[in-house]
Design a protein that fits this description.
- The protein is an alpha/beta fold.
- It has one domain: Rossmann fold.
- The protein is built from six helices and nine strands.
- A hairpin with a 3-residue loop joins strand 7 and strand 8.
- The radius of gyration is 16 Å and the shape is globular.
- The structure holds S-adenosyl-L-homocysteine.
- S-adenosyl-L-homocysteine (SAH) binds next to strand 2, helix 4 and strand 4.
Length: 211
């Protein structure tokens, strides 16, 4: 992406640094990614506030702090091939695509997927594959992945995602109902080690039918 940092995006990155984000690569990518491109024009004036915002279909673009926090957790293991569940607006995908070699992303609402694909193309991000499907199932024939990030709240950790993690791979996922625990699960052989990070609030990872 030929991103030039705008003042507003740079200020957002500085704010996130103040809020505890330490990974310099994550901060610099936030500073050069135009978040307003991922929102309706009517919400553009709020694009660089550290808040979640509606993106239609009852879904939300995550709060920038959470995007940055989950991204830095995921990068700790230096993943090359990454799976994201819940493409939504495509903002988190745009951030990840600038930090890893290859990103695969799954979304169950077709209209959101189409918009996200157009936005990433417009930003010249071409290392992303999109799937219209059920994130509970992951993306088996693209796996295994060095890391998986789920950007919707799961009632439990989806088994398919654990199976699609490479050895040493890491899964970052919010687990719970109304509010959730952000969890990091690391695979070591056939063992999975979980750690809770902080409380978060995501829209649900919907079960079953595609929209
Ligand atoms: N990463 C997104 C956040 C979107 S909110 C962003 O940066 O904007 C969560 C997204 O997960 C929504 O778009 C929702 O449609 C999607 N989602 C919910 N359940 C899903 C499922 N079972 N499979 C795939 N996507 C799902």
């Amino acid at each position: 992406m030929n991103g030039v940092a705008t003042t507003a995006a740079l200020n957002l990155a500085r704010h996130l640094q103040g809020a505890g984000i330490v990974n310099a690569d994550v901060l610099s990518v936030v500073a050069k990614t135009p978040r307003e491109l991922f929102l309706d024009a009517a919400l553009g004036h709020k694009a660089y506030e550290n808040t979640a915002l509606p993106i239609g279909q009852g879904q939300t673009i995550s709060q920038p702090y959470i995007v940055a926090r989950m991204t830095e957790l995921l990068l700790e293991s230096h993943p090359k091939r990454v799976l994201e569940i819940g493409t939504g607006s495509g903002y988190q995908a745009a951030i990840l695509a600038q930090l890893v070699d290859e990103l695969c992303t799954v979304e169950r609402i077709k209209s959101l997927q189409i918009q996200a694909r157009q936005r990433l193309k417009r930003l010249d991000l071409h290392n992303v594959s999109f799937k219209y499907g059920d994130g509970w199932k992951g993306w088996a024939n693209k796996g295994p992945f060095d890391a998986i990030m789920v950007t919707a709240a799961a009632s439990s950790v989806p088994q398919a995602l654990l199976q699609q993690l490479a050895d040493g791979g890491v899964l970052v996922i919010p687990v719970g109902d109304e509010v959730q625990q952000l969890m990091r699960v690391v695979r070591q052989g056939d063992q999975f080690h979980s750690q809770t990070i902080e409380m978060v609030k995501f829209v649900p990872l919907v079960n079953g039918e595609l929209a």
